[in-house]
Amino acid sequence: MTSEDLSATELPASNSLANRYGGQKRGLGRKGKRNIVIGALVVGIGFAGYVATGSGQSPVSFKDIGYSTVDDTQAEVDYQVIKDPEATAKCAIKAMDSKFAVVGWKVVEIGPNPPQQDADGGRTTAQRTVLATESPAVSGIVDSCWITDSGK
Q1: For the whole prediction, is pTM greater than 0.85?
Q2: Are 82 and 147 in contact (CB under 8 A)?
Q3: Which helix (H) or strand (E) holds 32?
């Protein structure tokens, strides 16, 4: 029997697989692996730098302290706003029901803070906002805050 007499099913497995899928692939060399590791390190360091500098440059931030339900038509939200003492900010406050639907919404303005001699130089102010609600609220939070003027 000659090689011409062999059918496709009688070819050696390694020969038929190589013809069908191609030959063996070359692995990455040392230089290729090193370049991938260096590239990953550069991207990681760049991302860490972006996160570190981006979080420190926010002109205003807030912290939810708590909420209370006065009755079925009112809720109170307590929070802190951290901003430049001379800046004016606006914050969107919302009350939600048990299904996380918004049942009350209000935008409040927080003006310049009076000069204080505390640890943060008057950057933090405590706030309480009363919201009218269309049905009983089970939570109240600050949705977002932003600066409305250039301040200093």
Answers
A1: no
A2: no
A3: helix 30-56
